[in-house]
Task: structure prediction
Amino acid sequence: MKNKFLFYLFAALAVLLSNVMCATVAYNYCSIQWGIHYAGYSTSANIAFLFIIPYAIGIAVCSVLAKFFYKRHCNS
Result:
């Protein structure tokens, strides 16, 4: 029973992280885009996509843990 709960927990966490990642990247992209036009930023708005890296690592770890606990639940 504990493995099933952990599977659902990490699966939900992976989905939640993907949604937060999309919101964070979109907000920072718009913020940098505004800064380029009105505040004189000298960088490209594509820099906002670097925020994907830590979220992608977290999503991958949660997905691997969810798969591990799912297999453990099926074997028990």
Remarks:
- The chain has a mean pLDDT of 95.
- Helices lie at 2-39, 52-75.
- The chain has one domain: 2-75.
- Residues 2-75 form one domain.
